[in-house]
Automatic annotation (TrEMBL):
Pfam family, one: HTH_18
Molecular-function GO term, any one: sequence-specific DNA binding
TM segment ranges: none
Keyword Transcription regulation listed: yes
Coiled coil: none
Keyword vocabulary terms for this entry: Cytoplasm, DNA-binding, Transcription, Transcription regulation
Residue ranges, annotated region (Disordered): 1-24
InterPro entries: AraC-bd, AraC_XylS_family_regulators, Homeodomain-like_sf, HTH-like, HTH_AraC, RmlC-like_jellyroll
Gene3D superfamilies according to UniProt: Homeodomain-like, Jelly Rolls
Organism: Cohnella zeiphila
Domain of life where this protein originates: Bacteria
Protein name: Helix-turn-helix transcriptional regulator
Amino acid sequence: MVDEKLERSAPGGLSPSETASDPPDFDYPPYITLAHLFHAPKGWEIRNRTMGQFVLQYVVEGRADYPVGGRLYSTVKGDLLFHRPGEPHSILTLEGEPYVCLSFVFHFGKSEFPVHRLFGETHLLGNYAGTEIEKKLNRLVLLYRQPSLSSQLQAQGLLLEVLGETAAGLNRTRDGSAVEARTKAKLLLLQNHIREHYAENVQHSDLEHIAGLSRNYIIVQFKRQFGLTPMQYLTWVRIQKARELALQTNLSVSEIAGQVGYSDVHTFGRMFKKKTGTSLSQFCSSLVTYKV
């Protein structure tokens, strides 16, 4: 008869209770509760929603405004957004623009997954149009729809790969810390310039002169930092200011247009309706109705 002590000490002979405990960095795999392709119907939107789980949202076609965590992201094809449980967010489709996305909702059970070590406070994980990550996200949806255990395990594995690879990409971006700090300071300078001069004819050449950076570099880095290109941010600031003026003053629509940098009220009106889905006069009428 084999000695019981020797059997336990032999390779592969240890019982589960005798193995080492979970290492400090051990974390459980994600449990996927939703993975699907969504075609937004005309006029569809979600406002101020919170989720109890983690969410990845990948833009397949079209674009939409995606406010989350106090910041506005104007998402386009290939953008991958991430937000955490309890973070209020909205998805606002744009008039005349399609919006098709892949949505993934998941959690890590009762374990406290250290997601901050992966993404910090980041929401926009990057643009992955035509990349391997896009292929993995599409395959993940297909696997999730299969009932077999092997498919579910593969789907979990793909989600882990996506989370790991996008986090690694963000870390590579952060590596040039000194250069990044200087660039961030210049981008904040540009952001402040736009906020202070939104009523003027702000041009890319002005921003190049202020920052000492090329136009294309400014556009890419500004969107990475703030979720919008400089001109998209200028438009967004103008819309917010127009709403403030509508709320706080008795100015006419044409006067408000002039206050926020538009000499042509019709151009302003088309822009406002395209970005918000309603005209400024309709917005003002709703305020009057509300006050009554």
